[in-house]
Automatic annotation (TrEMBL):
InterPro entries: F-box-like_dom_sf, LRR_dom_sf, LRR_FXL15/At3g58940/PEG3-like. SUPFAM superfamilies: F-box domain, RNI-like. Transmembrane segments: none annotated. It comes from Ambrosia artemisiifolia (Common ragweed). Pfam families: LRR_At5g56370. It comes from the Eukaryota. This is F-box/LRR-repeat protein 15/At3g58940/PEG3-like LRR domain-containing protein.
């Protein structure tokens, strides 16, 4: 331990960042010198799986009695432990938080996560935010106050706000998985990231509503600096009010992208590619408009 204590502060910080947060906190018992080292680490990762709840059956509390099934009580207890841990860490934390990750099951409305994001927005040091949420969580307006973000990863979230122009001026990576929104708000989000280099959209037509007459051309025009693009192509091609079928594929007109040049696009990935005429036309256009495309 003496050898580790003599390492440069930056090296010790890196080591602590590699540990699960609860293990990093346990280093506080090593010595007086180590008591508060962990509260300055800039990378915080919270995963619901870290918190195991015993199957031991005890008399439920008044709060637990509001849940009819024992399984619901167990989930509630796990969430309480997780949020309590997060609040404790954020309360004690000193210095900047550069990366914050939260992975858990959640309801559509979760005030605890709202409070966490609001706290992070006030601190305004976060560069990478990852919300890996199962089911659907409605994103709060405070998310758009994280102006220093360079990477935003959202999974299982609901986006029903339209961010102002260039709100994510520093964002270079945007990853969206199973996001519930409409095309207009999705385009507003993408267009609010003028420095975007990597874009992934893994939401299908079942989660992205029409919300206006928008095409894939509108999306491409929002990302002139893009280097990596991965998406489920038909989210901008079909009528989401009907089941997916070749007959409901919308038109793709290459002329809509006649003024586009993707000078930096290196990698293109299209999921659920069906070899339809409009898809092939889109790929042909991308090949013509992307002089440095490799993959």
């Amino acid at each position: 331990m003496d050898r580790i204590s003599k390492l440069p502060v930056g090296v010790i910080e890196t080591i602590l960042c590699l540990l699960p947060i609860h293990e990093a906190a346990r280093t506080s018992i090593l010595s007086r010198e180590w008591r508060y080292r962990w509260i300055t680490i800039p990378k915080l990762v919270f995963n619901e799986d870290m918190f195991e709840v015993s199957d031991y059956v005890s008399e439920p509390s008044v709060l637990e009695q509001t849940f009819d099934k024992p399984s619901h009580r167990k989930v509630m207890t796990t969430r309480c432990k997780l949020f309590y841990a997060i609040y404790q860490v954020l309360f004690m934390h000193e210095g900047p938080i550069h990366e914050f990750t939260l992975s858990m099951e959640v309801d559509r409305s979760c005030v605890e996560i709202d409070h966490i994001i609001r706290h992070l927005s006030k601190k305004n040091t976060v560069k990478i935010l990852k919300l890996e949420l199962k089911w659907v969580y409605k994103l709060p307006l405070s998310l758009f106050s994280l102006h220093k973000l360079t990477g935003l990863y959202l999974s299982g979230c609901v986006l029903d706000h339209q961010p102002s122009s260039n709100v994510f001026r520093s964002l270079t990576t945007l990853y969206l998985d199973n996001i519930r929104t409409c095309k207009k708000e999705l385009l507003c989000l993408v267009s609010s990231c003028p420095s975007l280099k990597r874009l992934t959209i893994l939401s299908d037509a079942g989660t992205i509503n029409d919300g206006g007459d928008y095409t894939i051309a509108d999306l491409i025009k929002c990302v002139p600096l893009i280097e990596y693009l991965s998406l489920m192509f038909f989210i901008f091609l079909i009528n989401v009010d009907e089941e997916f079928d070749e007959s409901v594929m919308g038109p793709f007109i290459p002329e809509e992208c006649s003024d586009i040049l993707l000078e930096r696009l290196n990698d293109l990935e299209i999921l659920h590619f069906c070899n339809e005429e409009n898809e092939l036309a889109f790929v042909k256009l991308i090949l013509a408009k992307s002089p440095v495309l490799k993959n």
